[in-house]
Amino acid sequence: MKSRKMTKLLAVVLALTLLFSSVGAVTASAASVTAPMTLEAGAGNILTSFLDTLLRIVFDWFAGLFPNGPGFVDKDTNSDSLKADNFYAGTTGKFNTSADANAKWYLGYSNKSLVPDDVTNGEYYIGGYIAPENAFTNVVEGVIDDMKVRCIALKDGANGETVLFGTIDCIGITNGDIRDIRELLKEFAKANNIVSINIASTHCHSCIDTEGLWTNNLVKLLQNGVNSGTQNGNELQQGTNPKYMAFLKDKVAEALIEAYEDMKPGTLTYAQKDIGEEYFNNKNRPTSDTIMSELSRFVFTPDNTKYRPTMIISIAAHPDVAGLPTSSNSGREITGDYVYYTGELLDKAGYNFMFFNGAIAGIYMSRGITGDGVDTPKRYHESMRYGHEIARLALALTMTEEEIEADPLLNCAEEVALYGMGEVGVKAGPYTLWYKDYEYTTETDVDGNEFEVISAINPWSPVTETEVEPYLNLAIKRVEVPVSNDLIGAMGKLNMANYDVLVSKNEHGKTVYSTYTEIGYVEFGSKFKAVMLPGEICQDLIVGGSSVDMGVNGTSFEAPLVCDIFGDGTMCLGIMNDAIGYVVPDNDYTMGDPANHYHELISLGQYVASSLMNGLQELKNEIDAR
């Protein structure tokens, strides 16, 4: 190769690397501070439109410099085999609307640590942030608490069909890796009438990288870029650590089997409470003002009381605080963030713990009004405070304030003793109680000195817990989504993530890319219904909102919403069965405002949302036709 051509290629690879690294920096800043720049949304914004067009051209040029990667296959000859490979469609027959006479809930539980013994040997990397504060490398330097997989096996006993769920503390896991886990379980699933195996992630930003996008990127991208661009025959390195991914897949498969073998009969109850927007920090796009602030809770109580009950919790919030690199926090220590600490306190209360994250695009954790000023010198301390608070909220959903105050675990007796608490109506102390909302005002004493006074408002109120009828409905569908973000396409070509990418030609003869992902719909009795979606879903796509009514390009979203398809009250189990980045409405997609629309840089492209929503409509039609 001529020297000039090689120099040009190296420059392109480095530019791509820096661009990709900046994506991590933008994400980090979005999680911690308000974006400094605001571009006014709307079709008339010439600057936004210009930058959007420019970036698309640049990314297309970058991606075009590299040939297709190892996971790229011809759509015409591989589409059917990919659709059928280790895919489980869910429960069979018609969807039940009432429990059969012989139906009864059976649930099994298991969890395992996913931290390898040699975790600090320099070969493992934290997934979640890339920033100058950690020198653009996330090599693991220690372990604060744990990185887990939590699993449940569930059936209604009517026909013996069992559904498995696993949730991994990680930034995300691709459908390709999930199908590898299912491959390990293939014979076991066949022998035990397991009709669905579903793997979600917590989207934790402080666990070992399971996607391959937060590894030793500068080195791997440069090496893979040279090897790919020159086609010198050298194998492209994987983004993830192959040894670790094999370890993780084995552990997850083992935990799922253990959950199946742990199944016991019992009752399932459900409660849900809107815990208020103060617990959620909305860093969404300016065109979206939606926050799904519900906390959903299931409790499975075995008939034999010698066994522990299992609590299943779902909220929608990024576990991102502990992994952010700052001047006082390296961002290189493993922690399960608030999810770990929710489980820690529930374990103390006598429960197994299972967690599902929700539609989390742009929604982060926030202590809100209970962010009381107690010193949290390490960022994980704040995750601990939030996680314990979520656990207390879940434990107390059906309790009165008097019952809460009588429970030492819930009334924060240890914390109050440690930190002290100002009494309502007098000068505020450093600690406030989670089950009371507070109003802070400033008053002046006789000497003219100002001090804060707190007043209790909106006292805690319990919600009703109901028993869930023992019938389980679940349907999964594979859908094809276009990959039109060429920045992500370039990452795929350079073998950084485990995706099967379909290659075809459009009507104009241009090469286009797509991939298969999975969507689903689940019902636990008549009390709970939810879609199961890959990636970080914009909440407006679930319940409606301003971004789908009028997006940045001045139009409305043309596909149906989840609430239109399955009705009001439908929840979302997000980052389920695939990690495809952010999913934002087609009409609200622009690359031209990265401060407010950073989600687009970490998305498969503009038409993913409509592909998923139209797929859900098809799934609903298929369910109705059974």
Count of individual beta strands: 25
Separate helix tally: 16
Globally, the shape reads globular
- Parts with pLDDT < 50 across at least 5 consecutive residues: 1-44
Helix content: 25-40%
Computed Rg: 25 Å
Q: Largest sheet, if any? A: 9 strands, mixed
Strand content: 15-25%
The residue-averaged pLDDT reads: 87
Class by SSE composition: alpha/beta
Kindly, what is the distance between the CA atoms of the first and last residues, rounded to a whole number of angstroms? 60 Å
Keywords:
alpha/beta, single chain, six-stranded mixed sheet, 16 helices, globular, 23% strand, disordered N terminus, nine-stranded mixed sheet, 25 strands, 626 residues
What is this structure, in a nutshell?
The protein has 626 residues and is an alpha/beta fold.
Description:
It is a single chain. This protein has 16 helices and 25 strands. Strand 21 (511-524) and strand 22 (528-532) form a beta hairpin. Helix 1 packs antiparallel against helix 6 (217-230). The longest helix has 30 residues, at 3-32. The radius of gyration is 25 Å and the shape is globular.
How would you summarize the topology of this molecule?
Elements: H1 3-32, H2 46-64, E1 72-74, H3 75-84, E2 105-113, E3 126-127, E4 142-143, E5 148-155, E6 162-168, H4 175-184, H5 186-191, E7 194-201, E8 207-208, H6 217-230, H7 242-261, E9 264-274, E10 280-282, E11 294-302, E12 310-315, E13 333-334, H8 337-348, E14 352-357, E15 363-365, H9 379-395, H10 401-405, H11 413-419, E16 437-444, E17 450-457, E18 466-467, E19 472-482, H12 486-493, E20 501-505, E21 511-524, E22 528-532, E23 536-537, H13 540-543, H14 546-549, H15 562-566, E24 571-573, E25 582-583, H16 608-624
